[in-house]
Amino acid sequence: MRFCYMSAVDATGRELRAGRVANDGDSLRQFFMGLKRAFKEEEKISVAVEACGFWFAFVDCVEPLVDRLVLVHPARVKAIAHAKLKNDRVDAATLAQLLRTNYLPEAWKADRATRDLRELLRLRIALGKSRTRYKNQVHAVLSHEGQRSPVSDLFGSNGRAWLVELALRPAGRQAVDTLLRQIDQLEGELRRLDQDLTKQAQADVDARNLMSMPGIGAFSALVLKAEIGDIRRFRDKRSLFQYAGLVPVVRDSAGHRYRGGITRAGSPTLRWVLCEAAQTAVRYCPAAQGYFERLAKRKHPHVARVALARKLLGAVWALWTHGVCFDERVFAAM
Q: What is the fold of 3-107?
């Protein structure tokens, strides 16, 4: 995104300025310094910005220049201001008027440390997905060649030795060798990242407490910290469940109640790491295994796994809020 569309209004709602401003620090600073000169000294300047991909840089640049900066939840503001005509100018004017009347649904602004941690962890996830994609391509080449791996782990030492000796057509051999080089390069980057993340988790008290949970390692603990942010902004564990999108959709109408699947609101990365933790916890935690098996008798295993992920998130809230380690007896009684 190369520019922002700005709309400035006074306390009465009269538009003072409107137009495009380039998305660079100098242009943004120049625009808001000009606004400060245009307003009286006693007047406060409030700014609203939608939580888009550029909001990190926007907040860092603009927040020191104004009295209040509101990060807006895009989906919720659309529900409030639904317009048939929709463009940048209309959106900016709508945000300005809603901010003036204090009707904007405010989103939480993550601090710099949390944003940096998110960026690092999402890089780790992206590299892991790329490695998986290259491995799948190797399997696809072997399938085209009519070959089947004699070992369970094609990319372990025995599997790699078999791949080196395998007779393939020239195109197939070139594809496999190229993909293996890409996998090796990613493996090196992932090892270095994992080492740094493990050190960071070991130095963090909250992360160490989270790592006492079954299914939560250094990487998962840091993902929880980065995606949740400040645990104190949630009044109880149910608020955290809603934030993670792990609560069912409920619709009431004319005395009829409909309960559907989970809302899937919030961070998909948070839900993913909790479901991965639930899958591991079933194997290593008797209390988690018992909970899962009881649900799986009357519900689909996927539904039972999501329910266990939500229960683990409740334990995350308790551990993080009270600064304690995991206790299986307490978890079983939750």
A: Nucleotidyltransferase; domain 5 (3.30.420)
